[in-house]
Amino acid sequence: MWGFSNAALPGPLPSYFILSITAAMATDASAKVIDGKSVAKQIREEIAAEVSRMKDEIGVVPGLAVILVGDRKDSATYVRNKKKACESVGINSFEVHLPEDSSEQEVLNAISGFNDDPSVHGILVQLPLPSHMKEQNILNAVTIEKDVDGFHPLNIGRLAMRGREPLFVPCTPKGCIELLHRYGVEIKGKRAVVIGRSNIVGMPAALLLQREDATVSIVHSRTKNPEEITRQADIIISAVGQPNMVRGSWIKPGAVIIDVGINPVEDATSPRGYRLVGDICYEEACKIASAITPVPGGVGPMTIAMLLSNTLSAAKRAYNLQ
Amino acid sequence: MWGFSNAALPGPLPSYFILSITAAMATDASAKVIDGKSVAKQIREEIAAEVSRMKDEIGVVPGLAVILVGDRKDSATYVRNKKKACESVGINSFEVHLPEDSSEQEVLNAISGFNDDPSVHGILVQLPLPSHMKEQNILNAVTIEKDVDGFHPLNIGRLAMRGREPLFVPCTPKGCIELLHRYGVEIKGKRAVVIGRSNIVGMPAALLLQREDATVSIVHSRTKNPEEITRQADIIISAVGQPNMVRGSWIKPGAVIIDVGINPVEDATSPRGYRLVGDICYEEACKIASAITPVPGGVGPMTIAMLLSNTLSAAKRAYNLQ
């Protein structure tokens, strides 16, 4: 079983947390809820304090530039949320919105402008890009010092190598590990299984766990016995996008579960006609695991918090601040 | 059990191969010997043919530059072997030998010269460097197009990322996978365990297996139950440098074993007073595994063959040849 130090728990618990514990207890849940919303809130407060200190001490405000191409509604929502999050901690936000039929060169020009702009410390290109553009060309154009998404292969290479340090760690996997840290979950020497091997979550999450001395296995669509392997894990990070794929029988009693999946499933009782569930079958898992992130309210809020954290780090690095 | 297609076996078997099978049978061995020496010989013949074709077609001879700093005897031997291997396939070799007390700048100058030299297509800095030099600074100075060792973080990052292609794959792990390919060992969907997580072998070997759709686990010094995890593997690649660490009880019947370790152990009966053994206890493993590399004569000869292969690729790429 995992030991949780109360001292590592983030601040006072919000009221919905207590409600969720009560609801869970009614179904014999034993798992502690890893409250990403509350942790993210605390991290944003820490960042706001640092941003303020930076402004006072050297008169510099960190800046994040977001490039949005086209009119996808979901992308527009993500960009709006990032902008709001920046404002909430005092980070300046810059936005370029290009039409769907822009050329690759127009996007590259926007990136180049932000690369050269000293008031911009982080640059984020909202994905997916329109299909006529080559994602790789565009992401590679972001200067490594402002690659707050951490997707540049040079950052990934440094993440993989012992003795090297990436300038930035991709936000979602960084958020997963931060949750483990803030809840006092020991990683060193533990068996960890990462389900999914995407460039933006699964693969960097595995590299991060490996850096912290876990014994890591990566389970993916070609794995023949995912249930058997997952059941050996003390820590599970799942990022596949399959609703309720990981059943109770996949989980070792006492395991800690970080569920990155955010999958809409039909729900006639919901006003929107759907609700969001994770990759993990929560109602089964919460009876077996020792701790688990809910969906929503688990990893989701952490991703934006880590983006703000990376932007702050970029600005500090630009001015050699600790 | 693994199926081996005879069609995939390299050329006619040399006489010592048959001898070694006979000797093994006397101890109830069931494992096929994965004959790296023979495979490496065949690869070198293939490379020699390509080098010759390239010279005929466009008048270009691939060139490998090696930079040696200091007077370590083992390093001098490695450099001499690489030079001889180049000659044997018709690749030009260039060498700079700098004294032990050279400055970092002198090494960087040598690299810079080779970076700019169009007759040099691959650059290799023999490691280890003297302790007053920062390895990272020196390796990063090799232009990515000539990084035939594949150690540049940009290459490692591309190796880790789906949909990206590294310019070069590090020679020893590339040799391990090449042995599996040439012996017709299926990798996709198999459980693979890599023992050791070094930047030059274990980590890139895990990334390569992952790229080929194996389900990969990495076992290292902090792993609590290495025997239990290793016993689940269909394919084992070991690169830790501990003589005979992996015993028969660690091995699943029918597993395929690639032993990267080359460890000297005292042996009074040997004229040199020592003999070389791998990380795997060969005499136990050969009774349980379906195939295994011997030490010496397994992975060792493959490393230099892959260096030649990377140098040929670099030269072809420089002239846009297929």
From TrEMBL, chains A, B:
<comment type="pathway">
    <text>One-carbon metabolism; tetrahydrofolate interconversion.</text>
</comment>
<keyword id="KW-0521">NADP</keyword>
<feature type="domain" description="Tetrahydrofolate dehydrogenase/cyclohydrolase NAD(P)-binding">
    <location>
        <begin position="170"/>
        <end position="318"/>
    </location>
</feature>
<dbReference type="InterPro" id="IPR000672">
    <property type="entry name" value="THF_DH/CycHdrlase"/>
</dbReference>
<dbReference type="GO" id="GO:0009853">
    <property type="term" value="P:photorespiration"/>
</dbReference>
<protein>
    <recommendedName>
        <fullName>Methenyltetrahydrofolate cyclohydrolase</fullName>
    </recommendedName>
</protein>
<dbReference type="Pfam" id="PF02882">
    <property type="entry name" value="THF_DHG_CYH_C"/>
</dbReference>
<comment type="function">
    <text>Catalyzes the oxidation of 5,10-methylenetetrahydrofolate to 5,10-methenyltetrahydrofolate and then the hydrolysis of 5,10-methenyltetrahydrofolate to 10-formyltetrahydrofolate.</text>
</comment>
<dbReference type="GO" id="GO:0035999">
    <property type="term" value="P:tetrahydrofolate interconversion"/>
</dbReference>
<dbReference type="GO" id="GO:0004488">
    <property type="term" value="F:methylenetetrahydrofolate dehydrogenase (NADP+) activity"/>
</dbReference>
<dbReference type="InterPro" id="IPR020631">
    <property type="entry name" value="THF_DH/CycHdrlase_NAD-bd_dom"/>
</dbReference>
<keyword id="KW-0560">Oxidoreductase</keyword>
<dbReference type="Pfam" id="PF00763">
    <property type="entry name" value="THF_DHG_CYH"/>
</dbReference>
<comment type="subunit">
    <text>Homodimer.</text>
</comment>
<keyword id="KW-0554">One-carbon metabolism</keyword>
<comment type="similarity">
    <text>Belongs to the tetrahydrofolate dehydrogenase/cyclohydrolase family.</text>
</comment>
<dbReference type="InterPro" id="IPR046346">
    <property type="entry name" value="Aminoacid_DH-like_N_sf"/>
</dbReference>
<dbReference type="InterPro" id="IPR020630">
    <property type="entry name" value="THF_DH/CycHdrlase_cat_dom"/>
</dbReference>
<keyword id="KW-0601">Photorespiration</keyword>
<dbReference type="GO" id="GO:0005829">
    <property type="term" value="C:cytosol"/>
</dbReference>
<dbReference type="InterPro" id="IPR020867">
    <property type="entry name" value="THF_DH/CycHdrlase_CS"/>
</dbReference>
<keyword id="KW-0378">Hydrolase</keyword>
<feature type="domain" description="Tetrahydrofolate dehydrogenase/cyclohydrolase catalytic">
    <location>
        <begin position="34"/>
        <end position="149"/>
    </location>
</feature>
<dbReference type="GO" id="GO:0004477">
    <property type="term" value="F:methenyltetrahydrofolate cyclohydrolase activity"/>
</dbReference>
<keyword id="KW-0511">Multifunctional enzyme</keyword>
<dbReference type="InterPro" id="IPR036291">
    <property type="entry name" value="NAD(P)-bd_dom_sf"/>
</dbReference>
